[in-house]
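Justification of resources, computational component.

The compute hours requested in this renewal are based largely on the per-chain cost of generating structure records like the one below. Each record pairs the submitted sequence with a full structure-token output. That output is archived, and it is also reused by downstream analysis tasks.
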Amino acid sequence: MFPYTDPQTRLDLYHQRNDELRREAAAYRLAHGSARAGRHRRFGRAARKAPAVRAPSAS
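The structure output for this chain reads:
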């Protein structure tokens, strides 16, 4: 292999790789989007539960 020292070649390779990653991401979203419809959750957060309400004890 030879080093890509030409700035235009490096820029073209950058754009080519960027387009490739963009297409992969779009295909992934298209394939996995319908399975998770309506289930928007933040990563790393547990579901919030209402605190348990206890009746006062008769002492």
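The chain has a mean pLDDT of 80. The helical segments are 7-33.
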